[in-house]
Amino acid sequence: MKNIIYNQKTHTIVSEIDHVALHNYIITKISVEFSNMVENCYYPKIAEIYKELLHRTNSTEKNLLEYSKQKYKQLETSKGLKKVKLLHDPFTTLLILITQDFLKYKDIAGAEATFHLFALRYYTNKLHIHTTPGRSKSHICNSNAFQTALERLSKNHMFVKQKTIPNSIIYYSRAVFKLYFKDLKTDNAEGLWNMIFRLRTSISQSMRSFFNKYYEVIEEDKMSKSEQGKQSEYDPTHETKLRAFINKIVTDICVYHKVDNEAMNQASNILKFNKRLSEEYAKKIANPVYSEKIESALYLLLKDIKDTSFIKNTSFFDYVKKHLSIKVTKQPVYFKKLISEIHIDIIKSLNLEKWYNELSVQSQAISRNFIAYYLAFYIQRYI
Fold it and tell me: What is the distance between the alpha carbons of residues 76 and 4, in angstroms, rounded to a whole number?
């Protein structure tokens, strides 16, 4: 039997939760992902799980977002709109609804497993933010540096105290779940906000201190390979600032669904790309499912730029064009490839495969390059 969640204001269906089916799916997925995390640099398949949960609950991001805005409207007065945006996230809303549904049936195991997805998501987001795409030919992040960083952590670090990273994520999740159990059951809006903030902050702090060690190892390795023994050009401070810069942009695009009309028009004009399709592409890309790829693509584009003022120059677009002209590379992950993957997914989601396949090679490239130029103009607003 499905529990149907309605938006009280619009009377539309937000989610249809089949308790039994979701219990089996989530328990299995959590078990698999935590088991796989024994591998260094393993990226939990959280985006795939999110897509599947949307499908299994007949939910849409639009309905989930409208529901959360209506639900937490009063909280905005006490916390402020900016802070409450932490709850205006479709995945967060969906996980809260599923967790509460399990609690309704006194299914503590299912509720706790669903809550683990919160923790796993925050861990995965931080892993993508802090690791370095393209640093190795076989991995997005450096597996050896990852292991060495683990070995260098202090005895008081949670990853050490709990023996493994997955054990640590489970520990954080269970602690916060128990602390805010009553708020989940009573649907206390302020308690839910504190719950999400506390869990995310706890995991972020552990990840930050771990990756300080990781960057330290990377730097030492680069220095040891230098023939003159000179200090490597790799700068952990630059890395940290760049990651934070990119994370803000990706959050605005993918979490808050911000479409930059000016950036869209500039990209459309420079490529002479169809205005209506430009709008459709810009709207489609404002989706959490693209956050990881956009984050990696922007990092690969910007990692060698030491002076961000260059991004404001017109020559920056020659730089973007150069990255889009790469035909062959040994790297498994690179800017053009990620842009192409995002573009193909958008084409499919808009049911434009037949139209796209009939285009000339040049027109296909323009369609793809719009995504890259839109992102390039988008980030200029942040400089």
Answer: 26
Q: Considering the entire predicted model, what is its pTM?
A: 0.58
Looking at the fold, whether 316 and 343 belong to one and the same domain comes out as yes
Q: Which residue from 228, 354, 250 is spatially nearest to 302, judged by alpha carbons?
A: 250
Label residue 152 exposed, middle or buried (CB < 10 Å: 0-12, 13-18, 19+): middle
184 with 264, same domain? no
Radius of gyration of the chain (CA): 22
Cα distance between residue 30 and residue 117, in whole Å: 7
> Within a domain: residue 232?
no
Q: In the predicted model, what is the mean pLDDT of the chain?
A: 86
Do residue 194 and residue 293 come from a single domain? Answer: no
- The three-point CA angle 7-89-14 to 5° equals 25
**Chain segment 241-257, per-residue pLDDT in tens:** 888 899 899 989 998 89
Q: Which domain holds residue 292?
A: 239-380
**Token pair 């309905």 in the structure block, residue:** 63
- Tokens representing 173 are 């999740």
* Distance between CA atoms of residues 354 and 38, nearest Å: 43
Q: What is the dihedral of CA 217, 221, 222, 228, to 10 degrees?
A: 130
